[in-house]
Amino acid sequence: MAAGFVLYDYWRSSACYRVRIGLNLKGVCYAQKPVHLVRNGGEQHGAEHHALNPMDAVPVLVHGAEVIRQSLAILQYLDEAGEAGGAKLLPTQPLARARVRSLALLVTCDVHPLNNLRVMQYLEREFDATPPAREAWMRHWMAEGFRAFEALLASDPATGLCCHGDEPTLADACLIPQVYNANRFGLDLTPFPTIRRVNEHCLSLPAFEAARPENQPDAA
Amino acid sequence: MAAGFVLYDYWRSSACYRVRIGLNLKGVCYAQKPVHLVRNGGEQHGAEHHALNPMDAVPVLVHGAEVIRQSLAILQYLDEAGEAGGAKLLPTQPLARARVRSLALLVTCDVHPLNNLRVMQYLEREFDATPPAREAWMRHWMAEGFRAFEALLASDPATGLCCHGDEPTLADACLIPQVYNANRFGLDLTPFPTIRRVNEHCLSLPAFEAARPENQPDAA
């Protein structure tokens, strides 16, 4: 590709993990700039990163002179920019696109925002929430989201090896990092057999394997 | 349009408000089915609505035999389905689309999910959060999101009468309902002059006026 891609990244951020999956599926070469979300009070709050993203968050994708924020905007940009080849992250038909987006949004709007580091910090600071109470909070929202996600997968013949058909889409790029979080915080996945099956399949693919948190250069 | 549109709606839900704006901008005629989020323990949890959306949430758009969930998926479906005419909710250029989506996602991922009814209920139930503490929580996340949103608008020459250029997009359809919420919960908007200016302009347009919560048939 003509202009270089730089991903401002943190190995354990599930929003970054989504983008790494997408970049790999598109076959895009990119450089990683780690932003440590915990060290030094959080490098995302530093002046340098704040200038790049006033939301003080990762991921940020820099493409030449352009700055793109928000994981779902980045992923759809990769799909639409044309420069990037590789697999399409969204299908062609409008209804299929709507299904894939609605699954992705279930994770990115209904689950993940409630499990963010900044939310955990607020619960501790303002409500004296203990570590077990904070982890119960996380599992509560993940379980609620996964129940709906499982129902939407299990009830629809469009579900294949992946969330939509047999090739990975935006929906898988969002689901698999959320399953990683769920495992990290001890959510019992027994009630979600379709999610587990799709997760296992996706993790067997090189694009997902390379994107795993533990395979990043900044992994602890 | 060939098949009818039915919106499962609640007047004060800002996610529904987004979709009403989009439907109006696209010039789509639609029927409204009110789902009362508070009465009877929340009609969104009833068997009928759960069958339509296992996430127990509004909005849901039914288009003929098809069910579309998640406000941003619905809005982009309207833009892509072709059947709907009216204004485009997303610009043409990939980078412009990314900017509009990233602004929309700042509201839908970074602000609104933390201000949901179900989150308020959890804070009260599990952390004994008082009404003032819950409202402080809401204002905290709105202020944090608006600071970033304001910076992204004010620093970019692509901002016009609306968030991106002079015609409303997906970004305005998300911002204006969030400003409604901010006013409802007493957030001081003085530090956000560009947001206030865009809000005022958009509310002067018929598509936004017709979508306002107080103009819905189920408004209290």
Structure write-up:
Chain A is of the alpha+beta class and 220 residues long. Chain A has helices spanning 14-25, 47-52, 71-80, 94-111, 117-127, 131-154, 170-184, 193-203, 206-211, and strands spanning 5-9, 30-34, 60-63, 66-69. The first copy, chain A, has two domains: 5-88, Glutaredoxin, CATH 3.40.30; 94-208, Glutathione S-transferase Yfyf (Class Pi), Chain A, domain 2, CATH 1.20.1050.10. Chain A has a four-stranded mixed β-sheet with strand order 2-1-3-4, with helices on one face. The longest helix of chain A has 24 residues, at 131-154. The radius of gyration of chain A is 17 Å and the shape is globular. Chains A and B meet through strand 4, helix 3, helix 4, helix 5 and helix 6 of A and strand 4, helix 3, helix 4, helix 5 and helix 6 of B.
Describe the sheet with the most strands of chain A: 4 strands, mixed
Domain count of chain A, please report it: 2
Rounded radius of gyration of chain A (Å): 17 Å
CA-based shape of chain A? globular
Helix content of chain A: 40-55%
Protein name (chains A, B): Maleylacetoacetate isomerase
Family (chains A, B): Belongs to the GST superfamily. Zeta family.
Keywords (chains A, B): Isomerase
EC number (chains A, B): 5.2.1.2
